[in-house]
Amino acid sequence: MMKKLFLLIPTLFILMTGCQLFESDQQAINRYATSWSDVTSKLESIHTELARRESKENELYLELTKLSAKEHETIQSVALEAIELVNEREVLVQEEKDILDQQLKKWDKVLKATSKNEDQAVKESLENWNSYHKSYAIVMNEYYRSVQLDKVLYEKMKAENVSIKELSEHLNEVNKQYALIIKKTEVLNEKYENVFTSSNN
């Protein structure tokens, strides 16, 4: 049975304090951190909608597994409903990726503003943020791929000539992808902790 997971990506709500930074660098980093708080409600809304759709998808998937091959018309109807939910998730994930892209554009400006700062605390903070951004992007890309795999799964399930072997092989790929997302998300959470810790040193 396919185990569905809702990817919870932590959102940053951090103001950098206590660091010995040049005033302009402090302001640049604080301004960037504040920009994350500005998009927090939007990200939370996206995650809520993703969770709602995944929950419904799980119900439809379980329904599909209980249908016999003779009930092909019903299978097609349920699979199409699941595909519609996947398409909606795809749009939501793209919205989150767009938010991340906008944040990265702001981050580029921070990097330019702090490029000449040789303070070790500043360098460590910038490295932690860079590492977090990279990890966040990786998780988003892997989750987006999982959405595509789910869509293919439902397409196969509604096909008349699909074999059990083919379904099983694809289902294994889906589960491997979700397992990968778990690992990548664990790394992401560690990067988040690094950013949070450095902001309070």
Question: What can be said about this structure in brief?
Answer:
The chain has 201 residues and is mostly helical.
Notable traits:
0% strand, 201 residues, 80% helix, mainly alpha, elongated, Four Helix Bundle (Hemerythrin (Met), subunit A)
- What is the global morphology? elongated
User: Can you count the helices?
Assistant: 4
Largest sheet: none
The CATH superfamily label reads YkyA-like
Which segments are poorly predicted (pLDDT under 50) over 5 or more consecutive residues?
Answer: 1-23
The termini sit apart by 46 Å
CATH class: Mainly Alpha
Query: Considering DSSP H and I runs of 4 or more, what fraction of the residues is helical?
Result: over 70%
Strand content: under 5%
Please tell me the overall pLDDT.
84
Number of domains: 1
**Over the alpha carbons, how many angstroms does the gyration radius reach?**
21 Å
